[in-house]
Amino acid sequence: MRIELKRIARKDSYTIGKLYIDGKYQCDTVEDKDRGLKQGMPEGTLKRMKVYGKTAIPVGSYTVKWTYSNTFKKYLPELENVPVFIGIRMHSGNDANDSLGCIILGENKKVGKVINSRVTCDRVLPLIENACKRGEQVYIVIS
Fold it and tell me: First-to-last CA distance in the chain?
């Protein structure tokens, strides 16, 4: 399964994107501010550019696994080996304040926010869960 996140609006405190699975549009996203981090940059550079809790993860490609989240007390998609970030997941929320680097799913019908996030997650996350459980290679490309 190929998940693609296309960041389309980079603002001072948040980033809006569109999420596709195998080429089909699924939902909108909100993340923290895109500070220009790129997978493959030196770790020291990434650490200098990152502002904790206010920075979107680096653009690049990451393996996605279906793992248990102690924070959320349930299974969620987790992006593996994101440089200088840990515990990056896709989950519900309202805006970048709910992110800590994670990808929030929903409908971007309010400036800087997503709505109907839980309903969106209930629709989209089982697609990822089922692919992982079938043993498919699941990855996300962020651009």
Answer: 17
Q: Where are the alpha helices (DSSP H) in 25-141?
A: 43-49, 117-133
In this structure, are residues 47 and 126 in contact, taking their beta carbons and an 8 Å threshold? no
Angle at the Cα of 19 from the Cα atoms of 90 and 139, rounded to 5 degrees? 65
Phi and psi torsions of 97, nearest 5°: -65, -20
Domain residue ranges of the chain, discontinuous segments joined by +: 2-133
AA letter at 38 = K
> In sequence order, which residues have a C-beta less than 8 Å from that of residue 118 and are 6 or more positions away?
92
Question: Residue 54 phi/psi, 5° resolution?
Answer: -140, 25
Q: Across the strands, what pairs with 80? A: none
Structure tokens at 111: 């400036």
Model pTM score: 0.96
Over residues 80-114, the pLDDT tens digits come to 999 999 999 999 999 999 999 999 999 999 999 99
CA distance 29 to 34: 13
**Of residues 93, 81, 90, the one with CA closest to residue 5:** 90
Mean pLDDT across 54-64: 98
